[in-house]
């Protein structure tokens, strides 16, 4: 399996599909590169599609020290991955946590980003988490460290509106959720949740983003409000709302998702 090594000696798993200008995507917290499966064929037909798993996720390393997990560190992981692949400039993006990482990377390294794709992401808005979300995430840390990943999957389906929404739209996705959590190391997931709870609030910095920006969100996703806040902050950004879709919009409406992303990137490339 292909890995890049970061400057602090963490192995980062990635997949490389297709040829062309690079499009680099990460999935949401707890996810993995396989969660992009409905999108790989369409996106890699036009682009060099690089899918990666941030530290603490699936096949990437999961250090035990919680201090080694922050959004800044995840953005540096993306930088180190691009350096490993000798990619100087790319379209970058991701879903949920992945969108939050890509947004912070764009703020830190604007010259390396041709266009930004943010999908179903509250963390990209950088707004404070609601109290009930913090409580749910803190309880998730307790469940995963005490009872393991299957218990975490059951808890998420019952208590996490992002996960519950996916299963409601597609009851067969229950097996998908269990498989997703079983790929995680408990300590990596717990530390990733800690970093999410402690995330930096970047809302006031979003107007500094000048690259073409696409926002894609499900109409039933709790992050729709924060995504609308991002649209107001990033000049010229475009919001596409998919329906019916929740927090996993790329999987709930894959054809519409692929079409929206490809049309946006084609315009960004032409403008370039």
Report what the structure shows:
- With 272 residues, the chain is α/β, with parallel strands linked by helices.
- The chain contains eleven helices and eight strands.
- It has helices at residues 37-46, 71-84, 97-108, 131-147, 149-159, 161-169, 173-182, 186-197, 224-233, 249-252, 254-271, and strands spanning 3-5, 11-17, 22-26, 48-53, 90-95, 113-119, 213-218, 238-242.
- Strands 1-2-4-3-5-6-7-8 form an eight-stranded mixed sheet, sandwiched between helices.
- The model has no long low-confidence stretch (mean pLDDT 97).
What is the topological layout?
Blueprint: E1 3-5, E2 11-17, E3 22-26, H1 37-46, E4 48-53, H2 71-84, E5 90-95, H3 97-108, E6 113-119, H4 131-147, H5 149-159, H6 161-169, H7 173-182, H8 186-197, E7 213-218, H9 224-233, E8 238-242, H10 249-252, H11 254-271
Parallel strand pairs: 3-4, 3-5, 5-6, 6-7, 7-8
Antiparallel strand pairs: 1-2, 2-4
Largest sheet: 8 strands, mixed
Strand content: 15-25%
CATH architecture: 3-Layer(aba) Sandwich
Strand order of the largest sheet: 1-2-4-3-5-6-7-8
When the domains are counted, the total is 1
The rounded Rg comes to: 17 Å
Q: What structural class should be given to the helix and strand makeup?
A: alpha/beta
- Count every beta strand, where a strand is a DSSP E run of 2 or more residues: 8
Can you tell me the residue ranges where pLDDT is under 50 for at least 5 consecutive residues? none
Mean pLDDT rating: 97
Report the CATH C-level class.
Answer: Alpha Beta
Overall 3D shape: globular
CATH superfamily, by name, is Alpha/Beta hydrolase fold, catalytic domain
Number of helices: 11
Helix share, percent:
40-55%
- Classify the fold: give the CATH topology: Rossmann fold
Q: Give the terminus-to-terminus CA distance.
A: 34 Å
- State the order of secondary-structure elements, H for helix, E for strand: EEEHEHEHEHHHHHEHEHH
């Amino acid at each position: 399996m292909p890995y890049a090594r970061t400057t602090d000696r963490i192995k980062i798993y990635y997949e490389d599909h297709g040829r062309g200008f690079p499009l680099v995507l990460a999935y949401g917290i707890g996810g993995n590169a396989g969660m992009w499966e409905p999108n790989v064929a369409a996106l890699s037909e036009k682009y060099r599609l690089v899918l990666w798993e941030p530290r603490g996720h699936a096949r990437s390393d999961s250090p035990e020290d919680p201090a080694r997990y922050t959004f800044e560190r995840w953005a540096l992981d993306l930088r180190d991955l691009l350096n490993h692949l000798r990619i100087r400039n790319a379209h970058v993006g991701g879903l949920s946590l992945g969108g939050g990482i890509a947004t912070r990377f764009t703020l830190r390294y604007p010259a390396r980003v041709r266009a930004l794709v943010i999908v179903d992401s509250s963390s990209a808005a950088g707004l404070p988490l609601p109290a009930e979300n913090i409580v749910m995430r803190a309880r998730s840390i307790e469940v995963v460290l005490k009872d393991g990943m299957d218990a975490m999957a059951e808890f998420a389906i019952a208590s996490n509106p992002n996960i519950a929404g996916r299963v409601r739209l597609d009851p067969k996705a229950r097996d998908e959720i269990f498989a997703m959590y079983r790929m995680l190391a408990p300590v990596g997931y717990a530390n990733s949740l800690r970093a999410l709870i402690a995330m930096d609030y970047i809302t006031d910095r979003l107007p500094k983003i000048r690259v073409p920006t696409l926002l894609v969100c499900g109409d039933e996703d709790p992050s729709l409000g924060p995504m609308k806040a991002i649209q107001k902050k990033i000049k010229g950004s475009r919001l596409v709302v998919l329906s019916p879709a929740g927090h996993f919009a790329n999987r709930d409406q894959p054809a519409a998702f692929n079409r929206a992303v490809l049309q946006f990137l084609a315009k960004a490339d032409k403008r370039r």
